[in-house]
Amino acid sequence: MKKTNFYLKDKKTDSETTIMLCKRIRGKMFKYSTGIKVNPNHWDNDEKKVLKARKNYSRINQVLNKIQVHFDEAVYNYLADDSMSFVDIKEILDEKLDIERNRKNSNETLAFEDIWCVKWIDSLKVVRSEGTWRKKGYVLNSLIDFTKDTKFKLEFENIDMTFAENYKRWALNVKDAKGRNRYTKDNSIHKNIEIIKGFCRWAYERGYTKSNAFEQIKGFDQKYFAPFALSSRDLTTLMDIDFSLVDLNEYNIRPCNHARVKEALEKTRDAFVFRCLCGIRHGDYYQLDPSKIINNKLQLVTEKTKSVIYLSLHPYASSIILKYDYKVPKLMNQNENENLKLMAQISGFNEIIEIVYMQGAELVREDKYRWELVTTHTARKTFITNCLRAGIPPHIVMEIVGIKKASTLQRYINISKADIEESMEKLNNYLGSKSA
After folding, report:
1. Chain centre distance of CA 57
2. Is 13 left (phi over 0), alpha (psi -120 to 50) or beta?
């Protein structure tokens, strides 16, 4: 998600003017009045925050940070729920601002939330990617929802094993705007608990709290089953498709939209295959420009981990770069995922495979068409899996893709039955064929 912008309603005035929140969403401009006024002389237009010269500057910036966190969550829900409108987003923000005003009027301070939103996230903005610190904001919103539903008192000394168990129980049952389970997998919930615990440790180490109750939280590890990835044959299939020849009537696409959809499918395929051949993260792909591609080699510093990536481009990846004159195709993430599924369906990825994950104490097994599982993240999993299948040592793969922990690499590896059978055949040949 692109950065939210705060602007002054009238930056040329000599008196105080309203701080506006503005963002383009799906081609439409969303505008929202925060109700907070400052003099332009007290506004940092580059950093989008109030300067120290303004009385109560810290409190105002704190509220703006919280508005940004709540706005990000509202937009996320808006993009996932077709029934939501800009009016719904504004109502959500109005509710959050009312809470802030009531808190100010009663001199009440929720230290936990304030430290998370202002101190922690601000510190992360300096050293971590935007996607990373925004994720922390989503987790805080989840935590606030938990406190509302359960009357839990959000204080550091209450973040312990009992909290973690109750939070997981709540998360397994909480619904989204459409009445669906918000969290369907243990891993998503356990990741949230890990982030909450990480924040408490950060606050404890910096003296914001004397409570180390968070250290009681154990047993919420994330369990990873074989991820979905494409084979080299699948990639060849994608490369060979000419979307101009595809009959979209078979996929219930209205004839008036055929030309637009075919163009979008071609761009989606090119962007996806490029990442399958390079292994870079979705966010890093969107930062690509001619300065990062020199002599057919990709050179960049990753946004998330600040690792240096240096690799030679596959011939097909090079052809994509030339095709778009070094301006790689970029689409909205949600539209891209929809197009990827249609692309995979057209490509014949119609086999049914079993997906396994934990939901509470239950091991859930679901049958899915392969095309249903293709997302933007599949590209990176595909690159890593194919690197290992090609015999590239894991430590080299980690260096190529900018992964620092072996445990992280394991999440991306798809080991198929064919891989296991081939490995066992190699072992049997090595040990010899003598029988009892």
Report:
1. 31
2. beta
Q: Is the dihedral of CA 417, 399, 192, 65 positive or negative?
A: negative
What span, in angstroms and rounded, lies between the C-alpha atoms of 131 and 128? Answer: 8
Q: Are 38 and 16 in contact (CB under 8 A)?
A: yes
State the chain's mean pLDDT as an integer.
83
Enumerate residues 6+ apart whose C-beta is below 8 A from 187.
222, 223, 224, 357, 358
Residue 201's contacts (CB-CB under 8 Å, 6 or more residues apart) are 214
> Residue 291 and residue 300: Cα distance in Å, rounded?
9
The residues, any chain, with a CB within 8 Å of residue 422's CB and separated by 6 or more, are none
**Dist CA 148 CA 66 (whole Å):** 17
Residue 39 vs residues 42, 59, 391: alpha-carbon distances, Å? 5, 16, 62
Output the CA angle 174-178-181, nearest 5 degrees.
30
Domain ranges of the chain: 1-108, 112-223, 232-429
Distance CA 239, CA 323 (A): 14
CATH architecture for the domain at 232-429:
Orthogonal Bundle (1.10)
Range from 49-58, 313-322, 405-414 carrying the lowest mean pLDDT: 405-414
Of the pLDDT bands very low, low, confident and very high (cuts 50, 70, 90), residue 109 is very low
* Residue-wise pLDDT tens digits, 228-267: 889 899 999 999 999 999 999 999 999 999 999 999 999 9
Taking the CA atoms of 50, 51, 53 and 57 in sequence, report the sign of the dihedral they define: positive
Rg for the chain, CA atoms, rounded: 25
Instruction: Confirm if 259 and 243 have CB atoms less than 8 A apart.
Output: no
Q: What gap in Å lies between CA 257 and CA 234, rounded to an integer?
A: 27
225's tokens: 């089953």
